[in-house]
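Annex B, item 7. Sequence and structure tokens for protein A, then protein B.
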Amino acid sequence: MRPCRLFVAIALPFILVASSAFADTSVEDHLEDARSLYYAGHWQEADEAFQRAHSIAQAGTKLKAASALEWGTLMWEQGNYERAEQLVNEALELARELGLDDATGELLVAQGHIEASKGELSSAENTLNICVQLTGELGDPVHRALCRLNRRMVRTLRGKDPGSDREFRDDVATLSDADSTLSIGTSLAKTAELYRDSGDYERATQLLSEAQQMYRDAGSVPAVTRNQLRKAQLLHHQGKFEEARPVVDGLLPRFEKMRNRPMIVHTLALQAEDAIHQDDPRSGVKLYRRALAIADEIGNPQLTGRIHLALCEMSFTESPGHCQRATEIFASTGMTFLEIRARTALARTHQIQGEFEEARTAFRQAIRQLEEAVDTDQGTHATSRTLQYANLCQVEAQLEATGALTTCTEALRNIEDLDEETRERHAGLSVATIHATARTAMQANRASTALEHFSTAAELYEELGEDNHLRIAADIHLRRGAIQRQIATERDNAADSFQKGLSITNELELDEEDVATVHISLLTQLAQLHRADEDWSDAIDVLKKLRDAATGLGDHKSAAWAYSGLASAYLQTDRRDDAVEALQEGRPLAEKADDQELLQTFDENLQRFDN
């Protein structure tokens, strides 16, 4: 299962509104206490201190605005969005009345955060657009950078162009030049994110470590803990679950102490991913459900949708319901790419469960939505479209749908356009698509095309080397031989195809049902071929192998058929006694198989010998 990446918002690293030198010192004292408690990670006490400052601050003052905004920010970080919104709106109104231009950036960043957390992405983008414009006019480069970074995240969620990489780097550089250790840490963490997304994990890890030192120097327990979460997420991104465990260890109680519910959800998701990695899906589901309950409680649709998506991608009995819910949430909030991912996961779940019509509909919807949202000719979007087409090809092959060969041909063309590293990463899906293309070619009566793709698929499956891949390769050789038998120009190659399949199944465990089925079918087809060509010596040799294999597997019908074939071949080579013996030994097996037609054949042949 692919790990579920949950968004961690940029925490505000600044004291939000400077208090007046002539203000009530008792309010200032409460605010300073609250800030100290906040940075020490004592959020319950900080909440009480902010509340006291707000309650005693004089109406219509800067300190009233400051206490409302800073208290509201704490509420936002704890996932209390409704209360946070009330407080930030109060601060906004006061700032307008008092002409607090220097607070504009802080206020609008906070408002944008809250709206994004509530899933109101259109409003959040509008707020952040205003923030970018006003902070630019007011000469506040730090909050302008924060607004653009947050707007980038919101636009990405909405499936829109987030902005140039140059703008991103400029904003990160602005934060790194700010007069704040915390802002420098934020800059380093965001740069690490850029390196992570480009695949430079070593550099990303180094930057997160540097950011962690900055946060320690600033004495911010919340920032240190959030950054530790980022490091754990990076390790999961790389598949380094064992290395991530000590990093994750201790995060949950620290976030629980702060009652930072969004971060609790993130941490539970990491623990769930690790449980699944350790082949403990039961614990994984339990942890995800706990995270889901908290995400529902705080009303963060992105977190709720992502947990549903994670449960969807686990592909268990309840997955379709989680897939559907994730799709609905992302659709209703305009999170385009997450909606596409959820719809694709829903399609995969239907595919795994054999619900191919439903899978086909979902894949087609996801492809259409992706193509309408972005340019899918290159980059990650091209890869996403390619993978969806590859799965759609396999689904249509199962359905024997009209136009399936066209779909599969398009899928193969897309795979060929991928870079070598990406093709290697998805080697299994690539060969499965070649295999499905061969099957659709057969359905379209394109035998030569089918044989070509079957040959390539068999070779690639053998290179992959896992037992399940080898079983598929043997089955492909069975199909190739069956096709070649029917084509005059290919008939001489049929025996070789059957023998290649047998060379594989002879090395596998025949007590596996799928392997046994292929092995018996290969021997049966090869025996039929030799009998049809009157190669009696070869036929007898293969029929004996079929008899022994079928008997050992308890396949009475195939064993009886082999005895019947042996009797016929013995008669053709003047071995009458051997033929009678084969019929006598085979008849009880036909009776056990309850195959009346085969049983009648045995009786009629035995009667001829009696006469």
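Protein B:
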Amino acid sequence: MGRTDQREFRHNKSNVAERQADKRKFPSGNESLYSGCVNHLRSLIGDMALSDWRTNVARRRRTGAGDPNNWAGYLAIPVVLVFVLVVYGFAIWQSGGKRDVFVVNGTTSPYTVVIDGTELMVPARSYSKHTLAEGDYELTIKEYPEVPPVQAAVRTGMFSRPFVSPTIVVNPDQSAIIEFEKIWYGENVNTLPEGEWEISAGKAVHVFTGVDFEFQDFPNQITMEGSKTSRKRVGLFDGEDVGQQQLLVILNQILKPSEMKTFARNWATFSRDDEFAVMLWGSMASGEEFVVWAEPYLKQEPINVDLHRTYQSLCESARPDHDLVGEYRTLLNANPDSPELTYLLGRVVEDFDESVRLFEKAVNAQPPSAHAANALAFAYLSVGEFDKAVAPANQAIQLQPDSLTFDMNYYDVMLASGHVGNALNRIRVRREEQGADYILLDQEVDLLLASENLQQVLPTIERMVQEVQVEAPNLATSLKTSWLAKLSYAQGNLDEYANNLEGESFDAAFVKKNYTEAARILRRSEKVDEMRGQSGNTRMASTHLLLYIAMTKAGDTDGAKEQLDMGIELLGSGSREERLLASAFGPSGKSDPTNILKLALRVDDKRIYLAALATRFPQDKDQYLLLAKKLNFKKSVPYHFLNEL
């Protein structure tokens, strides 16, 4: 009876293995030979008669030692083992001889990938199926000779090779986002387990196991046994289904830092006209990395303004001795009628009034420069001339309605100039264009909180939560908590605001006046950024200077000095404007309101820099605080703190 049970068990296992083998894609032309070898190997291992035969051989060996008639028994075992090893080795060799791979193109243009001399055409945002022997390959993209070759290893485990059939995705541009999904089927969908979803990017080879649907959608229905079953698929993730900002948040949470950096670089390389792609790579790269990457493209026509802008900003920090002004005067002298070069020179000249003149010239050119209009609005906004900023801000979004940079500046201008309704109308149009972009939804709440009538904000928040609830109930709960906390802060209920924040929060510690704790949280956040290769950003510099103001006010001299020193260090590795501020804050620094007040800086940071200068130079306190408070029009941290200075 026991022997029968064992045979039944093994037979069932063999059936399962055979059903899996039926799904396996055998190498072309060798299906019968390959499957015959594997099945014969299974029968040898799984046949109970072999076990009995081995027992009999062992018994004869114990009782018949030295009997010349038993020589066949002694030879049988090594012969069988050799045969098994030969068959298994052949199966390993044959299964590793060829693998089906999906060569994926994550860019918006078709290209030709060269795999060890073999050319393969791959459509844009799609794939081509190809067969490769297991091994190491060098992949180049014919249309992009400047892109370094990619090394791709197509491998499976040697001993498991005959029994596995992985889905291998090769991505030469390393900018495709590969999506893996697992869903459940059943008669009662309400009782089914939750599915799984993950994405990967930023590498040349992606390997998945147990996939049922390769680069095809799930069917609505399947035939199955039992009450439920699951299926898995792999395909290209369509990033257009979510907004770019939201996609960035998702990728930043899921990818390793090295993968995120590779993805950002390659996305920018293959999409140099995409403002967001270039901005992302600029934020992930070191200044020198970006400058070296950008230099080959700077003299190409037409002028890629977004690439030049990011190059200028990072070159100022990476190569502080480089004469950017001279470089762009030379470019403009060679092409004096170029509105793009006129604008780009305006970005780097040191004199505020000359910048404004150059921006105005580029705005009035034919065709007008949208970037110059945005820069003119930004310049007027940063010096508190809000009414002058309105017209160019409107012109910028009319000339280039799909720019994220222009949108952000437009919202600030509308808030500062008292046109909140215009900003809300604009962001709602953008939300309709982008679809389920929860980042834009969050920004809309920030705009609502800038209105004078906060009593009407709560019903709108409730409606927006219900809107999210339909698609993402867990996210809706989290957003509601965050939005109600923001509303509390805007209303001046600081304790309620801090209590509503989830987890450990710098803002919560700051509004509770626990500045030592806030400093600890800030430092930990910086360490995380350093691990992700994003250290030294100016947002951290302004936050250190905010703590410098608060600790000075609280009488913590040592803590204030530490925060000031850290702020100076970060500013010192930044742009020309930031280095000027670092020099002013330094031990031998001098107050210079005439020039510092005209620095074109983000208002979120500039309001803090000016308040810190008011603390550092009490003799010029009134001048710095006057503009700092004028720029303090957003009802978010540290709005109330700055108003009380």
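Comment on protein B: The longest strand covers residues 178-186.
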